[in-house]
């Protein structure tokens, strides 16, 4: 009997899917397979672990800067808008812990609960991902945009999430207890809506697997950059590039504005490709202002090392 490559591929997908349903997560090997361009540290389960200092610097990156870098690298499906954030002025930045919810189907749901119990999981299924959170994580969940009876958390779970992750959440679903959640200092929730109902007829399917968040594809360990405009899901291997590019843009803008105010250059000179003379002036300006720039001093030093003028 002759097997086509298409049939072999289909069988592989079926086995892959079955493994996810029974284990509710990717194996370390599968995680590494899906994130081959990440070469840094990983969590024990294989999820990419972008460095804490990159996360901290990411907070100053604008949505437009991140979008531009990803687009130049060929990533056109990493942004999603249309959220109703708890706070407009509290960004959420961290490593994605992804969760997939689906409309409830009793036979599948019962199997998942049995497997979870056998694995030692405690409580309702929507608390399982919270138990896995570590500091710097962002709980990212797709619950098919459900609002009424799609409230993944209230203020009790919100407090638990913040205690473990020191971070917020991004839900393609709703939340409840807006007033209580708003009292958690530093916490933010990007959700599709707010509703007083309880979570019903929703089942947990998988944790730390690829998910869809509206128009975006999200993998475990992607860096979440959530601000008022919307949410960027940045592939782990591009996170540092996004940060460094943002910092360079920020510094060049500051230099350009400073020199324009001094009248040293014309707008035409600053708005076009800089001459070698302006580039050298920029390098000297960085050295002279290194203690007052809005970029960590060590990062400015690294930038100066790489400059060739």
Automatic annotation (TrEMBL):
Tell me yes or no: is Metal-binding among this UniProt entry's keywords.
yes
Q: Name one GO molecular function term.
A: metal ion binding
Top-level taxon of the source organism: Bacteria
Tell me the InterPro entries matching this sequence: RraA/RraA-like, RraA/RraA-like_sf
Q: Where along the chain is Mg(2+) bound?
A: 177
Q: Where is substrate bound in this sequence?
A: 154-157, 176
Keyword list (alphabetical) reads:
Magnesium, Metal-binding, Signal
Q: Which residues form the signal peptide?
A: 1-23
Q: What is this protein called?
A: Regulator of RNase E activity RraA
